[in-house]
């Protein structure tokens, strides 16, 4: 049953993004930023963790989880280290994902030639 809920919740997040593209005519950058902020706000008010517990990968794979990770890391480190923990916590939690994106982007650029 977890696979079904994961598919449904992840699909709904993607549908929201597609509606933002089609109905509101938002650019990809605006849509991406809005979804990240939505994930951050949901984590800030304590609703994203229950969504992850319920939907698993359906809530952790979409871009909304990046906002969740930023806020979650900042809040954890703020409890330990105060104000400086807010900044370091965001980087600590998200650094592996950002590093992987940069590394795979460079590898892709080296291996493939753009058509144009």
From TrEMBL:
Keywords: Membrane, Transmembrane, Transmembrane helix. NCBIfam families: spore_V_AE. It comes from Oceanobacillus caeni. Signal peptide: none annotated. The lineage of its organism: Bacteria, Bacillati, Bacillota, Bacilli, Bacillales. This is Stage V sporulation protein AEB. It comes from the Bacteria. It holds the Pfam family SpoVAC_SpoVAEB. The chain crosses the membrane at residues 6-24, 93-112.
